[in-house]
């Protein structure tokens, strides 16, 4: 809290400094009204490329574009006064070269006002992470299950079951953290591996499907609100079940319109008496 009683705005530096002290609370946000509701309760809001699936009905995140991320990043920034805001670099906007990654990141930061960007990848992205952070772009890493690689991986499944897989995720996390990432998302990873990574990294690990051993947690907000019901992975807990409420409201509205009950007198403008 500040001297005026308002919550202080979180930054990538303050998130990094939470390592070993406080758990980091993170959710995704894609729109202004939802960002406004989540902001007071979260340290970090992620404008995730999961918006392709959650908002646009895509099968994967591969079709998400920089234009989409910029538009939703701007929308979220309009609703935030407390949380640190990170926008995902979408597939194809950073993997070609570190220069391409820098251009894409600068575009997102300048057009949205966000605090930094997230990119998926481990050892192979370390040089890019170092290039960006050395030039003023804070980077949120993302290792373990990487949804943008779905076409190589052949689907989504938890990782770290074999020694080779576990060692690879560990190397990936260390590579991006050493390259300068201020925090690292660890997705879909078995608990012992998440625990080891969390113990060895100097920056916070933010888990999604990666056990309570991580320094913080992130969920797709529509999943935890029960609004995105296309699939319900084991790691999601529904803190609310909003879909039936929305369906019921639509049913009631339809019935009242069809029966001429809505709009009622109180919803209707009448000419002012002359
Ligand atoms: O796109 C996204 O929402 C994410 C998080 C779930 C980590 O990458």
TrEMBL record:
<protein>
    <recommendedName>
        <fullName>3-methyl-2-oxobutanoate hydroxymethyltransferase</fullName>
        <ecNumber>2.1.2.11</ecNumber>
    </recommendedName>
</protein>
<dbReference type="InterPro" id="IPR040442">
    <property type="entry name" value="Pyrv_kinase-like_dom_sf"/>
</dbReference>
<comment type="pathway">
    <text>Cofactor biosynthesis; (R)-pantothenate biosynthesis; (R)-pantoate from 3-methyl-2-oxobutanoate: step 1/2.</text>
</comment>
<dbReference type="GO" id="GO:0008168">
    <property type="term" value="F:methyltransferase activity"/>
</dbReference>
<dbReference type="GO" id="GO:0003864">
    <property type="term" value="F:3-methyl-2-oxobutanoate hydroxymethyltransferase activity"/>
</dbReference>
<feature type="active site" description="Proton acceptor">
    <location>
        <position position="187"/>
    </location>
</feature>
<dbReference type="GO" id="GO:0032259">
    <property type="term" value="P:methylation"/>
</dbReference>
<comment type="subunit">
    <text>Homodecamer; pentamer of dimers.</text>
</comment>
<keyword id="KW-0963">Cytoplasm</keyword>
<feature type="binding site">
    <location>
        <position position="88"/>
    </location>
    <ligand>
        <name>3-methyl-2-oxobutanoate</name>
    </ligand>
</feature>
<keyword id="KW-0489">Methyltransferase</keyword>
<feature type="binding site">
    <location>
        <position position="118"/>
    </location>
    <ligand>
        <name>3-methyl-2-oxobutanoate</name>
    </ligand>
</feature>
<feature type="binding site">
    <location>
        <position position="120"/>
    </location>
    <ligand>
        <name>Mg(2+)</name>
    </ligand>
</feature>
<dbReference type="GO" id="GO:0015940">
    <property type="term" value="P:pantothenate biosynthetic process"/>
</dbReference>
<keyword id="KW-0614">Plasmid</keyword>
<feature type="binding site">
    <location>
        <position position="49"/>
    </location>
    <ligand>
        <name>Mg(2+)</name>
    </ligand>
</feature>
<dbReference type="GO" id="GO:0005737">
    <property type="term" value="C:cytoplasm"/>
</dbReference>
<keyword id="KW-0460">Magnesium</keyword>
<feature type="binding site">
    <location>
        <begin position="49"/>
        <end position="50"/>
    </location>
    <ligand>
        <name>3-methyl-2-oxobutanoate</name>
    </ligand>
</feature>
<comment type="similarity">
    <text>Belongs to the PanB family.</text>
</comment>
<keyword id="KW-0808">Transferase</keyword>
<dbReference type="InterPro" id="IPR003700">
    <property type="entry name" value="Pantoate_hydroxy_MeTrfase"/>
</dbReference>
<dbReference type="InterPro" id="IPR015813">
    <property type="entry name" value="Pyrv/PenolPyrv_kinase-like_dom"/>
</dbReference>
<comment type="function">
    <text>Catalyzes the reversible reaction in which hydroxymethyl group from 5,10-methylenetetrahydrofolate is transferred onto alpha-ketoisovalerate to form ketopantoate.</text>
</comment>
<dbReference type="Pfam" id="PF02548">
    <property type="entry name" value="Pantoate_transf"/>
</dbReference>
<keyword id="KW-0479">Metal-binding</keyword>
<keyword id="KW-0566">Pantothenate biosynthesis</keyword>
<feature type="binding site">
    <location>
        <position position="88"/>
    </location>
    <ligand>
        <name>Mg(2+)</name>
    </ligand>
</feature>
<dbReference type="GO" id="GO:0000287">
    <property type="term" value="F:magnesium ion binding"/>
</dbReference>
């Amino acid at each position: 809290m500040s001297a005026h009683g308002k919550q202080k705005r979180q930054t990538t530096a303050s998130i990094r400094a939470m390592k070993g002290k406080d758990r980091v609370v993170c959710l995704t946000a894609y729109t202004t009204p939802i960002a406004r509701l989540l902001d007071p309760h979260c340290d970090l809001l992620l404008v995730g490329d999961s918006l392709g699936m959650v908002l646009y009905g895509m099968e994967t995140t591969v079709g998400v574009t920089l234009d989409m991320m910029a538009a939703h990043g701007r929308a979220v920034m309009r609703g935030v006064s407390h949380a640190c805001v990170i926008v995902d670099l979408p597939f194809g906007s950073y993997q070609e070269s570190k220069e391409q990654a820098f251009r894409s990141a600068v575009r997102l930061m300048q057009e949205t006002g966000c605090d930094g960007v997230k990119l998926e990848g481990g050892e192979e992205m370390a040089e890019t992470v170092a290039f960006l952070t050395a030039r003023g772009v804070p980077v949120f890493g993302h290792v373990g299950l990487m949804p943008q690689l779905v076409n190589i991986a052949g689907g989504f499944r938890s990782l770290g079951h074999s020694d080779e897989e576990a060692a690879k995720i560990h190397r990936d996390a260390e590579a991006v953290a050493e390259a300068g990432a201020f925090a690292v998302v660890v997705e879909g990873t078995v608990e012992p591996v998440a625990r080891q990574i969390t113990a060895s990294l100097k920056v916070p690990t933010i888990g999604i499907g990666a056990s309570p051993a991580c320094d913080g947690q992130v969920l797709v907000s529509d999943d935890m609100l029960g609004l995105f019901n296309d699939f319900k992975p084991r790691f999601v807990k529904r803190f609310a079940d909003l879909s039936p409420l929305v369906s019921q409201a639509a049913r009631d509205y339809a019935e009242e319109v069809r029966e001429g009950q809505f709009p009622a007198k109180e919803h209707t403008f009448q000419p002012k008496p002359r």
